[in-house]
Write a structure and sequence with these properties.
- With about 450 residues, the chain is of the alpha/beta class.
- Helix content is about 20%, strand content about 25%.
- The protein folds into 2 domains: about 5-190, Jelly Rolls (Sandwich), CATH 2.60.120.260; about 195-455, Glycosidases (TIM Barrel).
- The chain has helices spanning about 110-115, 195-200, 215-225, 245-260, 280-295, 380-395, 440-455, and strands at about 5, 20-25, 50, 55-60, 105, 125-130, 140-145, 145, 150-155, 160-165, 170-175, 180-190, 205-210, 225-230, 265-275, 300-305, 315, 325-330, 350, 355-360, 400, 410, 425.
- The protein has a 7-stranded parallel sheet with strand order 13-14-15-16-18-20-21.
- A hairpin with a 2-residue loop joins strand 9 (about 150-155) and strand 10.
- The protein starts with a strand and ends in a 6-residue tail after the last helix.
């Protein structure tokens, strides 16, 4: 049995486990004629093991996971998993060869071992050869201590194991595929952290901002039942008066819709984020919204608007762009950039009679920084901001969903307060290393309660 540990850039956690091939000599069940087991073995340190720690060959998959997935999203057992060698003479074959590939230490993460992979999120393939001498009357298991996030395992070209989840060990039986003598093992690790966190959060929707993401994301959303908002990169101030800019936008819109229109997860096309309210902008984005409807008349069109100017405790959303939208996205940061968290309790939003998503809101907190709820940058204040935001949201009759900004802390060159930011935007519900802040647990409970209510009230608002 084998234990393998890999960590992604989003987690950067120290390895906890060693890689081993475990021979279950204590089991006397006959190996032949039995169904293979996929189970969780315990007491690894009390079993006979062969360690697979050390150097493994690795290959970086072609984006977006072309060697791992077929065109229809199924696992491809005929690509890198075969571990073929490049033909020097004869017919062309797969353009990969583990025999000449670089090596990486297992256990360990790829992001800190290979500088070129520091920010890489995708599929990495691991391979190593090993010797085994199976004994009659025993069963052999592969034990992986942890592999983040989705893993697929082949032994001698046979897929023996699939697993989803980034932190727990898992096992699969390899008795029937193991040879006496030389064997080889291939493991594909697909970093799909987004959906692991969304499941933990009890969320069912994600805004992919502020540009179209890798198509692998939408495919994973299809498999996980997550609804998606997909957006082209019109952010804040661009040259709305220039025809050539509009032509570029139409091209981006067509490319996004052409690629993703068959993904069931995509429910919203977004044409912009936080753009200034002026006539040139409004005509530009209205025309773009209409172009989106021509390209795909089956989906709703949205945009994230900013403002409006305060009118006492009222926020009257009168942006003319809303006329061109099917669903209004509203960004606001009351309690962080404006006013205090408690002020949100008194705010009354007035929207046009259309569905509304609160598309950005939240506050910044450094993971592990604790203090009073009025102390900025603490986890406690971040939770307090969310609590008052939900009070404010409860008074919006058209509200159909909330999208806290953002799931995880992310790199930002303009966020440079030492010891608090260190080059990261800290609005995440989790740190860049995947550590869940108090706000994550708070919203997890909120979403769980919403889901519970909605089971008995089909028309309840998200």
């Amino acid at each position: 049995m084998t234990q393998l540990l890999n960590r992604s850039a989003l987690f950067c956690l120290p390895p906890r486990n060693v890689a081993t091939l475990l021979l279950c000599l204590g089991m006397v069940l006959p190996a032949l004629g039995q169904q293979p087991l996929q189970t969780l073995l315990v007491g690894i340190d009390h079993r006979t093991v062969t360690s697979l720690n050390g150097d493994w060959q690795y290959l970086v998959d072609q984006a977006p996971g072309r060697a791992l997935y077929t065109g229809n999203g199924e696992i491809d057992d005929r690509s890198y998993a075969l571990s073929e060698h490049t033909n020097i003479v004869g017919n062309h074959n797969q353009e990969n060869d583990f025999a000449t590939a670089p090596t990486i230490k297992v256990p360990g993460d790829w992001n800190t071992q290979v500088p070129q992979l520091f920010n890489y999120e995708g599929v990495l393939w691991y391979q190593r050869d090993f010797d085994a001498q199976p004994k009659p009357g025993t069963r052999t298991f592969l034990h992986i201590g942890a592999a983040n996030y989705r893993s697929h395992v082949w032994v001698n070209q046979k897929r023996v194991c699939d697993h989803e989840g980034g932190f727990m060990p898992f096992d699969c039986e390899v008795t029937s595929v193991l040879h006496a003598g030389s064997n080889f093992l291939v493991i594909a690790v697909d970093v799909a952290t987004l959906f692991g966190y969304l499941k933990d959060l009890n969320a069912n929707f994600a805004r992919l901002a502020h540009y179209p993401h890798d198509e692998r994301i939408e495919r994973a959303a299809d498999r996980n039942g997550i609804m998606i908002w997909s957006e082209i990169p019109n952010w804040q101030h661009i040259s709305f008066e220039k025809p050539e800019v509009y032509a570029k936008d139409v091209t981006m819109l067509r490319e996004m819709i052409r690629r993703d229109r068959n993904e069931a997860s995509v429910i919203l096309w977004s044409v912009s984020n936080e753009t200034p309210n002026n006539p040139a902008r409004t005509k530009f984005l209205t025309d773009l919204a209409n172009e989106a409807r021509k390209l795909d008349p089956t989906r709703l069109i949205t945009s994230a608007v900013l403002g409006p100017k305060p009118d006492g405790n009222k926020r009257v959303v009168n942006d003319p762009l809303c006329d061109a939208l099917d669903v209004i996205g509203q960004n606001e940061y009351i309690g962080w950039y404006q006013l205090t968290p408690e002020d949100a309790d008194k705010i009354q939003w007035i929207f046009p009679q259309k569905p509304v998503l609160m598309s950005e809101f939240g506050a910044k907190a450094k993971f592990g920084n604790h203090g009073a709820i009025n102390q900025r940058w603490t986890e406690e204040q971040q939770v307090d901001v969310f609590k008052h935001q939900l009070v404010m949201f409860s008074k919006i009759p058209q509200l159909r969903g909330i999208i806290p900004w953002v799931l995880m802390d992310f790199r930002s060159t303009t966020r440079n307060i030492p010891k608090l930011q260190d080059g990261f935007n800290r609005k995440g519900l989790a740190s860049e290393a995947g550590q869940k802040k108090q706000a994550f647990m708070y919203l997890q409970q909120v979403y769980e309660e919403v889901a519970r209510r909605c089971k008995t009230r089909p028309q309840c608002a998200a």
